[in-house]
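Consortium newsletter contribution from the modelling node. Members have asked for a concrete example of what our holo predictions look like. Here is one, prepared for the NDP complex that several groups have been discussing at recent meetings.
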Amino acid sequence: MKAIQVQKPGGPEVLTLVDLPVPTPKPNEAIVKIAAAGVNFIDVYFREGRYPTPLPFVDGQEAAGTVTEVGADVKSLKPGDRVAYTGVMGAYAEYAAVPADRLIRVPEKLSDQQAAGAMLQGMTAHYLIHTTYPLKKGETALIHAAAGGVGLLMVQMAKNLGARVIATVGSAAKAKLAKDAGADDVIIYTEQDFEAETKRLTAGAGVHVVYDGVGKTTFDGGINVLRPRGYMVLFGGASGPVAAFDPIKLAQKGSLFLTRPSLAHYIASREELEQRASDVLGWIADGKLKLRIEHIYKLADVQQAHRDLEGRKTTGKLVLVP
Ligand code: NDP
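And here is the predicted structure:
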């Protein structure tokens, strides 16, 4: 089968198209013939070695497709079932071996590309907005990179809960997307000082929560726009890792809370995985949540997909088709 392997950490050029044997299932696994794989920023972190992992490895954490074979202990699935998953490395390939307890059945209404595109970013937006800091009606959230994959979904979920959303984006075209997704105010943080603007938009009061997946360039400003006892939810570093931080600053800035959550810990149990996946896939099927799949690449063009994602050229979801 065709797969995209990383043999040494580096730039997009280390994503190498190789031929590998089709995997065989362990007793608890199913083999999934992949119809579409999601591209996510975490794939960049693994590729460049920011998140170290044994080499070589097949990149990619998210896909949808059809079960072709199951291991001896798997009773819940059979060949032909349509499934989707996230959190298992090796999705940039034609086939993947996936523990059966990580697979979710795909509702009939959803395409493979929608299912592949919704799992990682959809469940991330879900846990950030509903669980890490459960946003309430009438509260104000600052959401960075709001036209990105996670960003567009977070804006919609926050608005569905009745919160006020101040969004940041890198360009005027992205600002329109964030507005269309429901953001009340949009700041183009490459042109405007988002800290000053957020203070102005909240009449100096600040926001209840900052959802920050950008990291290095936004973290300090975000800390400065929180109300007393506000929450800094730092969930990524698209601009680079945040510098070392002295916790005394949390007290000085108003007894703030800081968390650095990861999806894995919010879908660790089968029950939590099913509940989040069923909400996200169900909302997309019902039209309550719009998934923007603007960028579809062939598996062999994955280097371009990574260049576009890192180059801030994309909005919404990127999908690879084997
Ligand atoms: P996005 O589609 O949001 O792409 C990243 C965006 O970050 C860019 O489009 C860009 O938007 C913005 N950005 C700002 N500065 C930079 C920079 N210097 N270089 C590149 N991008 C920059 O990606 P994802 O939706 O896949 O991921 C968003 C973030 O969420 C990432 O940090 C990712 O690691 C994190 N994440 C965390 C998870 C968790 O559980 N902790 C799970 C899933 C994702 P703009 O031009 O508008 O600034």
